[in-house]
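Continuing the batch. This is chain 6 of the set; chains 1 through 5 are on the previous pages. Same settings as before, nothing changed between runs. Recording input and output for traceability.
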Amino acid sequence: MSFRLLPKDVKFFDLFVEDGENLQAAAVALRDMLDHFDDLDRRIAEIQALEKRGDEIDRELNQRLEDAFITPFDREDIHDLTIQLDDVVDGIQAVAETMMIYGVERPTEEARQLAGILADQSDALLSALRKLDGLKDLDADLTRVHVLEHEADTLSRAAVARLFRDGLDPLEVIKWRDLYRELENAIDAAEDTAEAIERMFQKAT
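Output for chain 6:
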C-alpha cells in the first residue's frame, strides 16, 4: 500500500495528541474515582477541569482549521474527530457528576469494570492519535477500541439484567440503569472516535 504525502502541519498532530492525552487523563481519573470512591469533590473537580481543558484544545483545533490554507486531512474529518474526542470527555464528566447527584454510596463491580474498559479504550485511542502523523500501525489500536466496546455491551446488558433479578429498591434500579447508560454512552463515543480516525486514515492512503 502506498501513502500519499501529507502537508506537514505539525501543530495539528500535536493538538490531536494533546486532546488524546487529556481524554486519557479524564478516563483514568474516572476509573480511579470508582476504584477508590473517596474524596469525591476533589475527584469530580479534577474531571471537570479536564473537560474544560479539552474544550480549550478543541477551540484551538477549530481555530487552526479555520486559519489553515492546507490541512493534513479533510477539514470535515478533522472537525468530526474534534467533536468525537469532546463527546468522550463530556460523557466521562456526566458519569462522575451523575454519581454525585444520585448520591451513590458505593459503585457496583460492573460500574468499575465499565470504567476500566473506558480507560483501556482511552489508552488505545491515544496510541492511535500518536501514530496519525506517520499513518502506520493504527489498526491494532483501533481494533482494540472496537473489541472493548463489544465487551462493554455484554457487561452492561448483564449488569442491567442483574438490577431487575436481584429485587433491588426501584429507585436503585432507576439510578443504576441511568448510570450504566451514561457509562455506555461514553464507551460508544470512544468507538465513534476510533471510527473517525479510521475514516481519516482510509482517505489519506
